[in-house]
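Reagents: none. Just compute today. GNAT family N-acetyltransferase.
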Amino acid sequence: MSLNFSQQVILENNHVLLRSLQESDLENLLEFAINEPTTWEYSLIRADGKENMLNYIQLAVKGRENKNQFPFIVFDKKSGKYAGSTRFYDINLDFKTLQLGYTWYGEQFRGTGLNKQCKFLLLQFAFETLGMERVEFRADNNNKRSIAAMKSIGCKEEGILRNHMPTAVGSEKRRDSIILSILRNEWFEEVKPSLLKRIEN
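Predicted 3D structure written out:
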């Protein structure tokens, strides 16, 4: 199945709902931008403060219009609150590959199991609906919390891109990027069964 970038996509289970991110979602995410600015410490595109958050959302929506990104907003059903955002990006439908990232959650939603719920729905959609062969993940190699979260869902480390890109601090300070991935056969044989057990408990 090809991805219709103009269509609204909703992924949900009993715990979480992910839907297509829109510019009007600024009001749903503004609280994090104002009160939790360190959320984007390792992000190249900052979303701290109202102007930065608006720019962050606009860039994500533009990426969808350009058909190379598909951003989501995350709604936590347990609390009845919006919790953060994530997206598919570097989408290559011909090669059947994409990256999954730009993921962040408000402080109260970290360590609650919400990330595993989201990742299950996103990976299931990528492999079983879109027919992807590979889903890639990247992070600043200093972002230990993010790396641990990716490995905990079953991502396999592939290596480090040294001095890969600038950081939000500026072009003078560059970062090493860690590359991880999940392949189609790994999803069905390992990752999906393991995640299912953990999110159902």
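Strands lie at 10-12, 16-20, 69-76, 81-92, 97-105, 134-140, 156-167, 170-183.
Action item: order primers for follow-up constructs.
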